[in-house]
Amino acid sequence: xxLDLFKLVLQLTVILAVCRVAGSLFRKFGQPRVVxxxxxxxxxxxxxxxxxxPALSAYLFPPASLGFLNALAQIGVVVFMFLVGLGINPxxxxxxxxxxxxxxxxxxxxxxxxxxxxxxxLYPRLSDDSVSFTSFALFMGSAxxxxxxxxxARILIERGxxxxxxxxxxxxxAAVDDVTGWCxxxxxxxxxxxxxxxxxxxxxxxxxxxxxxxMIYGVKNFLVGMEDSYHKxxxxxxxxxxxxxxxxxxxxxxxxxLGLHLLFGAFMMGAIMPKGEKFVNYVLERFETVxxxxxxxxFFAFTGLRTNIGLVKxxxxxxxxxxxxxxxxxxxxxxxxxxxxxxxxxxxxxxGLGTLMNTRGLMELVILDIGLDIxxxxxxxxxxxVVMALVTTFMAxxxxxxxxxxxxxxxxxxxxxGEDAVRRPVAAGAESRISA
Amino acid sequence: MAxxxxxxxxxxxxxxxxxxxxxxxxxxxGRKLTAPISVDGLWQLHVDPERMGxxxxxxxxxxxxxxxxxxxSGRNFALNLSPGPKSNASGVIDGNxxxxxxxxxxxxxxxxxxxxxxxxxxxxxxxPRVEPRSxxxxxxxxxxxxxxxxxxxxxxxAPPLRKGTR
Lengths: 436, 166
Description:
The complex is a heterodimer. Chain A is built from 18 helices and no strands. Mean pLDDT of chain A is about 85; it is low at about 410-435. Chain A is globular. In chain A, helix 1 crosses helix 13 and helix 8 packs antiparallel against helix 9. Helices cover about 80% and strands about 0% of the residues of chain A. Chain B is α+β, with helices and mostly antiparallel strands. In chain B, about 30% of the residues lie in helices and about 35% in strands. Chain B is built from four helices and eight strands. Chain B has helices at about 1-30, 50-55, 60, 105-110, and strands at about 40-45, 65-75, 75-80, 85-95, 95-105, 120-125, 135-140, 150-155. In chain B, strands 1-2-3-4-5-6-7-8 form an eight-stranded antiparallel β-barrel. In chain B, a hairpin with a 2-residue loop joins strand 4 (about 85-95) and strand 5 (about 95-105). Chain B is elongated. Classes of the chains: A mainly alpha, B alpha+beta. The interface of A and B includes residues 116, 193, 339 and 373 of A.
């Protein structure tokens, strides 16, 4: 496989242009840019371009050239997962005690259990005997229970709700969801790889535990030193930023080598980073722009190239797809709404929280990509799950406006201890904080 | 405070703990389910090149380098030549039997020197007891009894593509 530089740069140009245009169009309709970019990826794949203009599709994206595109996309997702981990702050959960604990745990268990029940129906129809039912059901559960932490944060920022009770509980719950979802996914990936590599599961588990201990008790202390240096000098030198990148890629390589996946190491590295607000914002600013504007669109395009809506053909397949969307929504939106309502949140606000938690966005695509790679899900099921990710992410903004119009959210302030729940203006041009 | 804690414990038990117990039950009952046999992957084709070449549109399959690339989704699968021109080929799995219809693309028809309106039909049986799995079957042209049929064997190249690895 030789590198055709012209073709690669042409692909980058087309992808960036289409993603930018689609993202801007969707923003005009009140949707987060990421929804448009996800949609753009589908447009560039066999579902549209390959269908209406197969010759152009074959010229732009010949199978032999996709390896390089995938490599760039995966590097983008590695950095993105680091940024997601960086944005997660366990202290947020403690602030909200029972409300956030119950909401987050129910928002995982409800879709997870419903997905496992759905798996009983789908496994004989959409899987094959090389995948065990346990792996299939657990994967479906973790894919359905994930929340797009970054998209959720983006919607909250755009609506000025980040510091409201709704916003803080949503952020805390989404953080717990993501950490739990990734732990379960790590288990599935480890099981799948161990089954096919002949390595003992205990070797993998022992390695992961050792790696986690080194990260938490060794690397974390080193990173605290970096934060101190940031506060002392008002910034980090290029050398220190390079060391941070080295640690990120080193961590990713360790988890890949241990039989998990690059992304777990990247996420872990982000999760153990110091959580001082200024330091986090500083690091985000350094890494976010290139990742979000250049590398993530490549991931959307690569995912789109693997998504073939044409595989979902016939009323039976569309019924499966509809069931997946329905179960995912009922489990996540319904479960989160019920739990937050039980903890004392007014019903409309609780439904707003459920809507936010039902947003899956890019996180879902990352998980699905892994599932397709390790063949826990089939191409048709992958396409159905991508449709589910698009639908649930797309419905978030209009549903939130419907459940929680401004008069409800801002008419009666709902302060939390020591915090102001009134609308927080968004800075002009602010499209940051992991806007994917 | 004790009241809040009691309500929390009740809610947590009903909404989190009990569903998790249910999940264990679902996982246990799911183990009894059987999924369609796995045929996903690259299959090296073994045919009599002369007989296959004599079949209308069969020239592309007569090449000893040609393999069948099966992309499976449950009972359904898509089938392509690797390497080779695209085809509009799809099929279903019924037990250990595969049935597929291959409609050659314009490029395929041009390369094979056959007309556009030929449809190749494939029926094969998978032997699940041997690894790598093997396939035995026949290919014939739909609506052309005079063309005869060609027997073939195929062996899966490796476990399903990149299974468990990246």
